[in-house]
Design brief:
Chain lengths: 124, 107
C-alpha cells in the first residue's frame, strides 16, 4: 500500500526557515517523480515544486522560486522541502504527492497519490 | 503559464440529480487533465486522469470528457457522499495548475 507521511510543519516567524519531510513507503521511491502542493486556509490547491526520481532537475512555482528548495534522499525514501525567507502568505497545509507511473528520469505532475498534509503557519 | 478556469464555483443539487462541472484551459493541454475530489479537512483524492480514465475504486457515476481546452466532470446520479470540492488540474506543463475549485452541496 502506498503511503506518504508528511512532517515538519509548525509555527515559524516571518523570515524564518523550516524543513518539511515526506516519508514514502509501499513503492520503489527512486522510480517516481514527487511533488509538493499547498493549500492556504479556505483557499484552493497550488502546486509548489516537483522533482523526478533521478533528481536531475527541479521545478518551482514563481511564488516560491529562490526561497524554497526541493530535494530527495532515495536511500531514505524521503522527500524534502527546505523553506527559507518565509512569509505570511506561505501559511498553508503542505501535501506531498506521487506521480502515476514508474519512470525515474521523467516528470509529469499528475498527482496520483497524496499524503495527509502538514500545516505551516508563518506568524509573529 | 496555463490558467485553468472552472464553473460554476458552487452548485447545489438534490440526491439523484445529474451534475456537470466545466473546466477550461487557457491553452491546449491535450488530454493531460485530472479531476480531484477534496472533502473538508482531508487530502485531495484523484478521481479521473487523462481526461476520462476513472481511477481504481472510484464509483462509475463519475465520468470525465473533453480534450484540448474544454473538459467536463459529470456525476450521473448525485449521492450524499459526493458533497465535496472538485478541482480540475492540468499536467501537460511542468506546473500542474489547478482550477479554483467547485463546491458541490446537497440540497
Amino acid at each position: 500500500e502506498v503511503q506518504l507521511l508528511e512532517s515538519g510543519g509548525g509555527l515559524v516567524q516571518p523570515g524564518g526557515s523550516l524543513r518539511l519531510s515526506c516519508a514514502a513507503s509501499g513503492f520503489t521511491f527512486s522510480n517516481y517523480a514527487m511533488f509538493w502542493v499547498r493549500q492556504a486556509p479556505g483557499e484552493g490547491l497550488e502546486w509548489v515544486s516537483g522533482i523526478p526520481g533521478t533528481s536531475a532537475y527541479t521545478y518551482y512555482a514563481d511564488s516560491v522560486k529562490g526561497r524554497f528548495t526541493i530535494s530527495r534522499d532515495n536511500s531514505k525514501n524521503t522527500l524534502y522541502l527546505h523553506m527559507n525567507s518565509l512569509r505570511a502568505e506561505d501559511t498553508a497545509v503542505y501535501f506531498c504527492a506521487r506521480r502515476d507511473y514508474s519512470d525515474p528520469s521523467t516528470y509529469s505532475p499528475l498527482f496520483y497519490y497524496w499524503g495527509q498534509g502538514t500545516l505551516v503557519t508563518v506568524s509573529s | 503559464d496555463v490558467q485553468m478556469t472552472q464553473s460554476p464555483s458552487t452548485l447545489s443539487a438534490s440526491v439523484g440529480d445529474r451534475v456537470t462541472i466545466t473546466c477550461r484551459a487557457s491553452q491546449t493541454v491535450t488530454t493531460s487533465l485530472a479531476w480531484h475530489q477534496q472533502k473538508p479537512g482531508k487530502a485531495p483524492k484523484l478521481l479521473i486522469y487523462k481526461a476520462s480514465i476513472l481511477q481504481s475504486g472510484v464509483p462509475s457515476r463519475f465520468s470525465g470528457s473533453g480534450s484540448g481546452t474544454e473538459f467536463t466532470l459529470t456525476i450521473s446520479s448525485l449521492q450524499p457522499d459526493d458533497s465535496a470540492t472538485y478541482y480540475c488540474q492540468q499536467y501537460e506543463t511542468y506546473s500542474g495548475t489547478f482550477g479554483q475549485g467547485t463546491k458541490v452541496e446537497i440540497k
